[in-house]
Amino acid sequence: MNASAWTQLTTFLLVLLMLAWPLGRWLAAVAEGRLPRWLSPLAKLEHGAYRAAGTDAAAGQTWKQYALAVLLFSLVGALFTWGLQRLQQLLPLNPQAMAAVSPDSSFNTALSFATNTNWQGYAGEATMSYFTQVLALAVQNFLSAATGIAVMLALVRGFAARSASTIGNFWVDITRITLYVLLPLSLVLALFFASQGVIQNFSAYPEATTLEGGRQTLAMGPVASQEAIKMLGTNGGGFFNANSAHPFENPTPLTNFVQMLSILLIPTALCFSFGRLVGDVRQGWALLAAMAAIFVVSVVLITVQEQQGNPLLAGLGADQALTAMQPGGNMEGKEARLGINASSLFTVITTAASCGAVVAMHDSLTPLGGLVPMVLMQLGEVVFGGVGSGLYGMLVFAMLAVFIAGLMIGRTPEYLGKKIESHEMKMTSIAILVTPVLVLAGTAIAVVAAAGKAGVANPGAHGFSEILYAFSSAANNNGSAFAGLSANTPFYNLLIGLVMGLGRFGVIVPVLAIAGSLAAKKRIPVTSGTLPTHGPLFVTLLIGTVLLVGLLNYVPALALGPIVEHLMLWNGR
């Protein structure tokens, strides 16, 4: 990496920490209901919503009740999103007279946005009316993000509880998160984006005359408002097909930097909230350190690969090209105004988090450059991860790490004063194995089925990588794509839709089961035999567990895709 890339990375991390620390304090206060008096008007609105819904805010829920509430809430949201797409031609705010979205695409999109995946097999500006964009997609951006944070809070309460039968109230959690965190942050960010040139209107698409005298239709829409929650909620669904590479979504270097900060802001802040909620801020720093270490290494790897570029374009013979660098690096698929360094950093951020917003075509990355975002997703979206989902995923790995350590020294594993026993390990195993099973099974079906192979435009190793990336993205609720795969077909819409749903809730349910089990246990005192879970030793153990367990399932598949493609490229083929 050159000096510019290091400066960008260092500046980004420093600004991120400065913003995330106070937000983490605020998130912890919201989770515990410790709100200042000046928010009393919003508090009245909050309690009014409970009365209207018939919800007792003081009543806790068991893990089963909490899980049922999550599932029903997400199901209703998916059905609502599906219905608006199917009826959008009859609804207002449709100046371009967009037709109804096909049943299979509507199914895929509904599950996509309800699961915080935001996978898009369509071009937003040519498919969705303003009404659908605002009331279906943008609303789900808020609610799916709030759901992830709520599940994380339930798990943290399991660790923090002395001995309880409940893990909180889902309806209270999701209301407070939306009202006191996501809405105000999104409002501020949307105003900032609009001030920088991100468009915000409900106008019909105008026609413009190009410099060559041609005619071009310019897509319009309420972009700034959707862009804010798209990033803050690690949603990632772009208003435009070009996503954050589109100048109407991301017009300046400043907006690009702020968008990157927005993606990791809440996941980072939740690490600090976690430490406060369990009564030991060092625990949050330990998890953050593990995430940051993997993150920095990933940025270095992809930036070096993209700066090195394609050896066959180095202007040398095949035998000399093995040690040569492409002049200017690999700029294919990247915005010239952003360049390699910013594009590489954004790519790592969006796949370390479960965001999926893109500023570059991931399909045009070098083989090992494309391997980096693929692996970050396959780790389970725990390197920062999605809002809430990244932290509860990392906590699952933390429990596995202390279990492994306990086996090594012959003691009963414990984490944060709670014994990790057979039930917790069974649920942990399910939560960790769900996504690899979905990714590998989905990829296997797609490469065997004729309908799956029909969507592949690039034969060989790269085509396999496109399919593997698609299912890695879907099962881990990321939403980005290599984009060389023609996925807007009934086969891929239905299969990827199912994978997204199972990938989201197949992890949430066992996580809530763990929360319920831990909440019922008494906290045990720290002894001389307790493994410290806030120091460098535990951070190293946690990183090793994430890399070994999270990645080992995918090594054969990665060998068939990006790794063999890299070897072929550097052998002049």
Describe the structure.
Helices cover 63% and strands 2% of the residues. By secondary structure, the protein is mainly alpha-helical. The chain has a two-stranded antiparallel sheet. The two termini are 26 Å apart.
Explain the layout of strands and helices.
Layout: H1 3-32, H2 40-53, H3 63-87, H4 103-114, H5 124-127, H6 130-160, H7 170-196, E1 207-209, E2 215-217, H8 223-232, H9 253-277, H10 281-308, H11 339-352, H12 367-378, H13 389-409, E3 414-415, E4 418-419, H14 422-448, H15 450-453, H16 461-475, H17 490-520, H18 536-552, H19 555-569
Antiparallel strand pairs: 1-2, 3-4
Helix pairs in contact: 1-7, 1-9, 3-4, 3-6, 3-17, 4-17, 6-7, 6-8, 6-17, 7-8, 8-9, 9-10, 9-11, 10-11, 10-12, 10-18, 11-12, 12-16, 12-19, 13-14, 13-18, 14-16, 14-17, 16-17, 16-19
State the helicity in percent bands: 55-70%
Strand tally is 4
Structural class: mainly alpha
Strand numbers in spatial order across the main sheet? 1-2
Distance between the termini: 26 Å
SSE pattern: HHHHHHHEEHHHHHHEEHHHHHH
Beta-strand content bin:
under 5%
Taking the sheet with the most strands, its summary is: 2 strands, antiparallel
Mean pLDDT: 92
Radius of gyration, whole Å: 23 Å
What coarse outline follows from CA principal-axis ratios?
Answer: globular
What multimeric state do the chains show?
single chain
Number of helices: 19
The residue ranges in which pLDDT falls below 50 over 5 or more consecutive positions are none
